[in-house]
Design brief:
globular, about 280 residues, two-stranded antiparallel sheet
Length: about 280
C-alpha cells in the first residue's frame, strides 16, 4: 500500500478536494471524456444505452477510448435504442471494438438489454421496478438485475463471456464502470453529469474506483486497503461522505485531478509523491 503523504488537517483535505473538484467538474472536462457521448442524445433510452456502452469500454487511454466509443455508436447508426429494439446487433461484423471488447461482447450485452427495453420504456423504469433505489448499494443491485437478463438472453449461445459486459463477481467487484455510468445518469448539478435519473439519489452513489483513484486515495489517507475491490469502494465512499454526504461522488473529479502527475499540487496541503 502507498504510504499516506498528505500532511494537512481534515479541513485542509476538504479544501483541497473541493478545490480540485470545482476545477475539473467544469464544461471543459466534457470534450475529452467518454461522458460526451451520452450527452449527445436527447431521449432517455438513447442516453442510458450510450452511458452503459461508453462506460463499459472506458479503460485505458482516453483518446483511444473516445475514438472507439465513436466507432461503436457508428455501428449503431447513432441510434442506440432503435438499433437495440430492431435487433441490429445480430448482424454485427466480427470486429474488435476496444482492446479486449469485441463485437461478440457488444452483441451479448445488447441481447441482454433487449428484453429490458422490450418490456420497459427505460432502464430507469426497470431499476424502479426492481427497487434498486431502495437498496444500500444501488449499483450492485442494478448489476444483479441486469446480469439476470444477460444470462437468460444469452443462454445457448457459444463463445459468450458476460463478464465483458458487466462483472459477474458482485460480492467483490468494485463495479467501476457501472458506478461511472450511474454518476453520469444521477448527479444533477448541471455541469458535466446529466442528472436524468431520479430513481437513485446522488447521496446513494459510490465512487468509480480504479488503480489511479485508489492510489491517490491512499496517499490522501482516505483509504487504507491495498485491494481495489467492493469493500474499498464502500470505505472510500464513506470517507468522502464525511465531506459531502449529499454528493460524495463529486470528489471523483478531485481524485482524477490529483491522480494526474502534472496536476499534483506542490503546496503544503498537497499530496506529496514519494516516487
Amino acid at each position: 500500500m502507498k504510504d499516506k503523504t498528505f500532511e494537512g488537517s481534515t479541513a485542509d483535505l476538504k479544501d483541497l478536494l473541493d478545490r480540485e473538484a470545482r476545477r475539473f467538474n467544469s464544461p471543459g472536462f466534457i470534450d475529452a471524456d467518454p461522458v460526451q457521448f451520452p450527452r449527445r442524445f436527447a431521449s432517455l433510452p438513447d442516453i442510458e444505452i450510450a452511458s452503459l456502452l461508453a462506460s463499459t469500454v472506458a479503460w485505458g487511454n482516453r483518446k483511444m477510448i473516445c475514438a472507439n466509443i465513436s466507432k461503436m455508436l457508428s455501428l449503431m447508426d447513432w441510434s442506440p435504442a432503435a438499433y437495440l429494439l430492431d435487433k441490429g446487433y445480430e448482424e454485427l461484423p466480427d470486429i474488435n471494438i476496444h482492446r479486449t471488447f469485441f463485437a461478440r461482447d457488444l452483441r451479448a450485452f445488447l441481447r441482454g438489454l433487449y428484453p429490458i427495453y422490450h418490456k420497459y420504456a427505460t432502464l430507469q423504469e426497470f431499476a424502479r421496478v426492481n427497487r434498486v433505489g431502495e437498496t444500500e448499494h444501488p449499483a450492485w443491485a442494478l448489476a444483479e438485475a441486469v446480469n439476470r437478463s444477460l444470462a437468460e438472453a444469452n443462454a445457448g449461445y457459444d463463445h459468450v463471456n458476460l463478464s465483458r459486459c458487466l462483472p459477474q463477481n458482485l460480492k467483490t467487484t468494485a463495479l467501476k464502470r457501472l458506478n461511472m455510468a450511474l454518476r453520469w445518469l444521477v448527479r444533477n448539478d448541471g455541469i458535466v453529469d446529466m442528472g436524468v435519473w431520479d430513481v437513485i439519489k446522488p447521496s446513494q452513489l459510490y465512487i468509480p474506483l480504479d488503480v489511479h483513484v485508489g492510489d491517490t486515495s491512499r496517499e490522501l489517507g482516505l483509504l487504507d486497503r491495498n485491494a481495489n475491490d467492493r469493500k474499498s469502494v464502500e470505505i472510500l465512499t464513506d470517507s468522502l461522505r464525511r465531506f459531502n454526504p449529499d454528493d460524495p461522488v463529486i470528489y471523483d473529479y478531485a481524485l482524477f485531478s490529483l491522480g494526474l502527475p502534472a496536476n499534483r499540487p506542490d503546496s503544503d496541503l498537497a499530496c506529496k509523491t514519494t516516487d
